[in-house]
Amino acid sequence: GNAVVYGYETEKPVSENIDLNREVDLNNEIDPNTQSGDFEYEVLDDDTVSLTKYIGQGGDVVIPSKIEERDVTKIGNKAFRYCKTITSVIIPNSVISIGNEAFSVCSSMETIEIPSSVTSIGYMAFSNSALTSIDIPNSVTSIGYNAFYGCASLTSIDVDSENVKFTSKDNILY
Q1: What is the pLDDT, as a whole number, of residue 9?
Q2: Count of beta carbons in the 10 Å neighbourhood of residue 132
Q3: Ramachandran class of 59: left when φ > 0, alpha when ψ lies in -120 to 50, beta otherwise
């Protein structure tokens, strides 16, 4: 048929102009994120997984050590940011790094277990969360600035005595 434009029929059939029935994908870029359960993730160059977003209901969250048979090695930047319904998180020993602002403004998250596989904690990683205590394992060699900024309930910081980079005394991180 012919396309009608401003009440006039065009001279050429639609097939020669525009296919008006074709669905147009305005976002035809490739989305690197894939979903598995409560998580969106991306596969990294080393064939491991970085969690990019938490989409679950909250409560007590246990992060999987594998997704699609790949090791979860990174909690991406802002992956859990503003997840205000999370109360606790257990990180598996496959994770090596916790990204910038990863758990920022998790205002109900009182506890998190960081395994001895983690070497790096990003800036503002736990800022404005409800953490009451934190144990830093001996494996952590990098902690970004303001990692615990605004954690008003944080009363205990304990750094593993074997840690060569950091120490805590009287609940102050050095």
Answers
A1: 47
A2: 13
A3: left
